Amino acid sequence: xxxxxxxxxxxxxxxxxxxxxxxxxxxxxxxxxxxxxxxxxxxxxxxxxxxxxxxxxxxxxxxxxxxxxxxxxxxxxxxxxxxxxxxxxxxxxxxxxxxxxxxxxxxxxxxxxxxxxxxxxxxxxxxxxxxxxxxxxxxxxxxxxxxxxxxxxxxxxxxxxxxxxxxxxxxxxxxxxxxxxxxxxxxxxxxxxxxxxxxxxxxxxxxxxxxxxxxxxxxxxxxxxxxxxxxxxxxxxxxxx
Length: 241
Prior knowledge:
The chain is built from 4 helices and 13 strands.
């Protein structure tokens, strides 16, 4: 997986589908940087949140079980290991299960994984092991995804399968389906829309060398200050872990 958002942070960072070479950048709305709100008792994201490269949730296909189309993004991943990651970090992970969030009438899979180097990794092989060794985490994950948009005036999210977290075999089937969808996207079998397909490895979409050289060199600037209001806790009526 590629880490986009480290655990306990709020900045809504994601792989940009529309930009050349798909960099990770902070999302904006109406010209302002986006942050996820803190819904009591949570602080920021509960896990290292990121995506599986070379996957795509096809918006042209309605999943037969969720009855909703894909969300047009790479497959989302929640890494539950003990170490806090950093944006752009590449982690080798073990797939444990999957939740099917229904976000604005789209299927938005959330793959539950653990870093293979985590001390708990040898003991976690399927979703029931997560509840055994990390009791309460799956319930908290379900709650977080249900309520995290409420402070911004949006309704509570819903889940397919009554919120059940499917096992590792089901999750791997989802990963394979989204990997096949990505291959169809890159081969031209599926319409790309506004997605930038330029990359550094595949011949049919290899990035132009001149454009790559024109990318500004890295500038190791300190983080900009974050407004203190981002730390506010929101108390959601009816929310329960």
